[in-house]
Amino acid sequence: MMRSSPLRLKELVFPQISVKALVPKAPDQGTRDLPVEALDISFVYDLDADGGKVGAGIKVATTNVSHDAADESFLYRIQVEAFANFDVIGPEHQDALAVYLRKVAAASALIGAVREQIATTTARGPWGIVMLPIISMDKVIGMPPKRATSESGDPALGPPAKKAVKRKQIAV
Known about the structure:
Blueprint: E1 7-21, E2 39-47, E3 53-62, E4 76-88, H1 96-123, H2 137-141
């Protein structure tokens, strides 16, 4: 059984796509991967008052890339912004986990769109395609909410905590 997504994409816009090819001293040694540590990632998430629509945006830019990149290993300086509007699926669910899952869905959709824009734009550049890496959602939207558990299994407090099961070791 396939679960439905917590959001449905309605509109996607790119107000800024900036990719500048740099001229490093040794372009053949330049990296075609954009390390996560070299990226400045900003994410915004805005749920409207009735809870039925979400606006989200992301900005991905390279950091530590100087204007004079002669000594750098980076081949491109990149800054891309994307904004999207979504419809909320199941707006009656407003608990912390539902909000977190919607943020994950919005951020994932936007990062995927930015990844495609960077790949498409750099494909026509002098150094070829540069890819945005897989980015942890913890870095973009923060850690997931803690789940409350109870020994009684009260639904208001979450399922009972599972106890560790000791496994037998088999000698080989």
